Amino acid sequence: HGQKMSKSKGNIVDPWEIMNKYGADALRLHFYMANQPGEPKNFDENDVDQVVKKTLLILMNVMIFYELYQDKAEASRIAPKSDNVLDKWVLALLQQTTNEVTDHLEHYEITEAGRKLADFVTELSTWYVRRSRDRFKSGGKDAGLARTTLGFVLRQVAILLAPFTPFVADEVYSRVRGGFESVHLEEWLKQNKLSVEDAQLLDDMTKARQEVEIALAQRAAVGLKVRQVLGSLTTTVAFDDDIKTIIADEVNVQEVRHGTETKLDTQMNDELKSLGLVREFTRQVNALRKELKLTIKDKVNLVVQVPDQLKSAIEKQLAEVKRAVIAESIEFSDQAQEHKIELNEIKISITLKK
Question: 3-class secondary structure for 24-68?
């Protein structure tokens, strides 16, 4: 807290105590990211805790998510070819991060390098994985591409992290089956100039996320939850259809248009209200699945007692709802079921059968 550590003042921090509590890698990464080598270090245990929560735990949660869908093959050593815009984006961001981290390390700018890697881990989790969850669940070719892409990215991230967090890097590398006995036997990643297309995609995705941020603020201003489907969003940038789809999913609108200002259409009608109820229904069912400790591999047969209005709305989106709640079938019943749920003051009941 700005005072020099001193035995007489009794403010010395035992490094072994910190390492036993948070891990050696957390302490290493904290010192790398805090400020430049050679500068005085203001040590606060809370800062080490934040490194764990905001970087290392996030990375391990991505690792755990990957393992839910991982096959027995080693992680790819070559960037997969995918037409999916999220795969293209994360691979472009990985290459950009590799280039920047390498440049910083070659110029002894360890702090900037560490921060770039932490930023990438955040982007990987909060944008790529979160926006790709439905792809992983979907099965088929697209799910395979998402799995291969994430495995490749985790392998490369482990190599980039090796000088900063050697133990965590080795753990990730071994769990994705990186190829060698240890990540520390790998060669450093190669720098490659970004293609014009990749640079443009990174720029477009940044702008898309800015538009999303404005739209979500507009939602909050009028008290509309994100689960409530809305009609349209007008953006100031003319995006490709792939990015429009991502924006529409993130903001939860039916259509994304191009115009002169970012504006969310907040007008409601009966159809939109019904769609919002279906979204809330799937959220509640998934919360129940979690409460019952069901995994993504546990397909269920769903029996529901719902009012006619909600029944009709669910039937219109039956395939999507079944996929979202990982259900083999959805059966409607007039009889009360095992679990009681309330959706915007509408009382329903549900039974999940494995």
Answer: HHHHHHHHHHHCCCCCCCCCCHHHHHHHHHHHHHHHHHHHHHHHH
Tell me, rounded to whole angstroms, the distance of Cα 303 from its chain centroid: 31
Tokens matching residue 142: 């697209």
In contact, 340 and 349? CB cutoff 8 Å: yes
* Residue 55 confidence (pLDDT): 95
pLDDT tens per residue, range 251-296: 999 999 999 999 999 998 888 888 888 888 898 899 989 888 888 8
The candidate with the shortest Cα–Cα distance to 35, out of 105, 109, 107, is 109
Amino acid at 48: V
Same domain, 59 and 163: yes
Provide the pLDDT for residue 263.
95
Q: Are residues 75 and 23 in the same domain?
A: yes
In a domain, residue 233? The reply is: yes
- Residues lower than pLDDT 50 in the chain: none
**7 lies in a domain?**
no
Q: What is the DSSP letter of 108?
A: T
What domain range includes position 78? Answer: 15-185
Angstrom CA distances, 218 to 35, 175, 224, 268, 269, stand at 37, 42, 9, 15, 18
Two tokens, residue 158: 């482990």
Contact criterion met (CB below 8 Å) for 267 and 231: yes
HSE-CB of 78 using CA atoms within 13 angstroms: 3
Looking at the 3D structure of the chain, how many domains does it have?
3
At 67 the three-state DSSP class reads helix
At CB < 8 A and 24+ separation, what contacts does 184-190 make?
A: 186/159, 186/162, 188/102, 188/159, 189/98, 189/102, 189/156, 189/159, 189/160, 190/98
Please say which residue of 185, 208, 237 terminates a domain: 185
Residue 9 identity (one-letter amino acid): K
> What pLDDT, on the 0 to 100 scale, is given for residue 262?
94
CATH code, 161: 1.10.730.10
- pTM to 2 decimal places: 0.85
Cα–Cα dist 354/350, whole Å: 13
pLDDT at position 116 is: 97
In contact, 184 and 170? CB cutoff 8 Å? yes
The type of residue at 314 is: I
Q: How far is Cα 27 from Cα 40, in angstroms, rounded to an integer?
A: 16
